[in-house]
């Protein structure tokens, strides 16, 4: 089931490439609302990562778009490793001004991790996520993005134990 969902989301990302706006993103994520002592600790250890993604955004109206987001992340702590996968997001733009507009998005992703988190039975993880952001006009056809996204990572109770890793990711992006 996990592999089927992973393949379906990957194919969705490929089908969205034609006629899509492309956004290049870099981000930093850190543990949030996890067990342990402190704000960004996972099992009493700090948790953080660096993320790079390419968004393929297809507009269905002025305010609604569908995004396919293949990504790769380097997990820095508690142990180092790589996570890669794809997310499908629905984005809604609101507060449309002449020089900027705000948005909210949410969706589901799947990932494979080279590291194994304590308390998670699988390296294949599901990633429900929600975010808020701002798009700025910085040139005639160039846009800058700033987004804050909450991501929950778990194996969706398909295997036990199903310990979750929650993170907050701050991202900046650009579209030409």
TrEMBL record:
InterPro entries: Lipid-A_deacylase-rel, OMP/PagP_B-barrel. It comes from the Bacteria. SUPFAM superfamilies: OMPA-like. Keywords: Signal. The keyword Signal applies. Residues 1-20 form the signal peptide. Transmembrane segments: none annotated. This is Outer membrane protein beta-barrel domain-containing protein. It comes from Desulfurella amilsii. The lineage of its organism: Bacteria, Pseudomonadati, Campylobacterota, Desulfurellia, Desulfurellales.
